Amino acid sequence: MRAGLILLSTLGSPAVAADWTLDSDVAVNPDGIAWPLCGRILDALPGGAVDAQAGCPASRFGPGFTDQPIAYTFGPRLRQAGGTEYDFHRAIDLAVDCGTPVYAVATAEVHDVRLGTATADPRVTLRHELSTAASTCEGGCYHTVYLHLAEIVVSEGDTVAPGQLLGYSGYSDVGALTDGLQPLYTSAVWDPTPTEVASNACALRPAGVFQHLHFELREAPFDDDSSNWLHDAVHPLSALPYDNDPADNGITLAIEAVDISVPAEPAVDVSVVMDEQSPLDFAKVWVEVVDTTTGAAIVQPGESVAATHALHDYYVDPPWLDLEQVNLSYTHKDSGAFPWSCSPGDGCFHDTCPHAGDHGATYDAEVHLVDGAIGLALDFNGVAIAPAAFNDGSDYRLDLSFHALAGSASGELCVTAQAEDVHGVQTSSAVRFAGGGVGLCVSPALHPGERLTLTAMGASPGEVVYFVFGPAPGAGPCPGPLGGLCLDVLSPSLLGSATADADGRATLERTIPAAVPNATPAHFQAAITRGPAGVDSVSSNRWTGTITLP
Question: Which CATH architecture describes the domain 436-547?
Fold first, then answer.
């Protein structure tokens, strides 16, 4: 995420303490920041109802008042309209009845009032300045976009405060409505008058249309500080106030499969599931592959940006999916400052994109992030992305297949997947052993005084798994309880045991003694006693690593 930009609490005011930031290292202060529906202002409030025309009360400017649940969140989705297309949704959709009042989320200037470009529906765009000089964007800008409106009550150039009424919500394709032979809206005027539009648009609403507010947040990059474009969109929950509890945010991450038919080129299938009542604030998932014979994480070819791709921050086949990053890099822009096509070597999008072979003859912002083939995942930049249908009472699910990873000829790999929310907080993780039989994975970062996690996989539910540690590899002892099975660790010490859960996983945590010297070799193995007198006992792979100072 582009970090460090701060929105001042008052447009054009002297520099004061910031109340809105998209820097994930700084906590969001909700004072003065409203949700676009003011925490569903039509609901009854303590002490009585509030007139929608009067704006959002200050008591609604906090994390306890949100517009959840969210019908669609930021990121890839399977479109409900016909169910024939994967696209990239750069907003949150708030399902609400047509005619619900819509409010400014923060102090701003009304940048434009017009029909949208991707959809011909009325919208309002607010410009939130970061500098003390209004309307210049010299210090950077944010824009917030309110789309599918049935009525708009502000005009371009107006200054609005947090919680000030902007208009009333509508529905998808509300801009296509006609009253007789005349369109309700045109690009130049609102026809009929604004007070008539809300009642007419909602009364003329076709059955089955999606009534909602589409809300976007766009962050101008440092090198194009007045930009207001699709690729500038960031997750709105990076700024809107809500109760963010990483331990209970509804994100579940799982490694569904690891294909090591070619050990040096593993494919990893990951699923991300969010409860429909959760914040839907998932932002990133990444995969790490460790060779258990060395304990070292395998460097992935897509982890860094090549010099030839640095201008637009292109990562090629990275071991992660970062929703904001992929939108910023691969939703191409076309403007005077940053044209899509230009003379070779000038740094335009068409010139520098590593996937330029997919470009057509004419400009298309969506060439990389939209796929019209139903039933097929959007396969782009090293990962196949398959969103499940959402907004039908089901949970949000995203299936990912990373197929441009580097592995090891050893064929004994530990794969870890981790997820982050919009604030950069790790929310969920998963680990899986790729190899035969019982597998052992160990947290790869081994530091004195820190926690060590050992996970054995492939046991039967309820089995007791024993974990041992030794200073060197080699032909170790053959304990009697294991029925003559020999360990692959010299002079092993028992770290402890754990019982396998319903998935056949057993996890043991220990603290590495603080006095362990730097660069101490560490070798781990797991074993399970099976059969009469242990004749069917099994052991895991040997996991090799080094304890180092952090």
Answer: Single Sheet (2.20)
